[in-house]
């Protein structure tokens, strides 16, 4: 996501607003519809997590007095704080995507190199880096 090009007046696209919960971009008129629905989904998913993995309610970014780019950066950071780490490889996902990821991730395949960069060694012996 290129937050620096949104709402700077030079872009031909209409300005977008980042959801503080999921990190997706929406038009200025759509965000008010999306956020309450996204928060309900978040609450539902959070309640299904084991007690020790449940997260505090995300805090809505107070956009008053700041520019769109700055507000979007704060909203993006807030959305990234909602990600849950995979118990096998440590990569972070939204809870509904973590379940899908865990089906194909196992401890024997998930590793990190000396820099902490995640990679997976597959049965055929190849190595793929997480981009």
UniProtKB/TrEMBL annotation:
Q: Which residues form a coiled coil?
A: none
Does Ribonucleoprotein show up as a keyword for this record? no
GO MF annotation, one: zinc ion binding
Keyword field: Metal-binding, Repeat, Zinc, Zinc-finger
Q: What InterPro entries would the database entry show?
A: ZC2HC1A/B-like (IPR026319), Znf_C2HC_C3H (IPR049899)
Domain (C2HC/C3H-type) ranges: 15-44, 82-111
The lineage's top-level taxon is: Eukaryota
Matches recorded under Gene3D superfamilies: Classic Zinc Finger
Q: What is this protein called?
A: Zinc finger protein
Per the UniProt record, the source organism is Fasciola gigantica
């Amino acid at each position: 996501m290129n937050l620096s090009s949104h709402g700077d007046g030079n872009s031909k696209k209409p300005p977008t607003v980042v959801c503080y919960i999921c990190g997706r971009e929406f038009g200025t008129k759509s965000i008010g519809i999306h956020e309450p629905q996204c928060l309900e989904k978040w609450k539902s998913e959070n309640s299904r997590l084991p007690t020790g993995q449940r997260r505090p309610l995300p805090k809505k970014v107070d956009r008053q007095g700041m520019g769109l780019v700055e507000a979007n950066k704060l909203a993006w950071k807030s959305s990234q704080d909602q990600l849950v780490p995979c118990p096998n490889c440590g990569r972070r996902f939204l809870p509904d995507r973590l379940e899908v990821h865990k089906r194909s991730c196992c401890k024997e395949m998930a590793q990190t190199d000396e820099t902490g960069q995640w990679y997976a060694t597959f049965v055929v012996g190849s190595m793929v880096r997480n981009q």
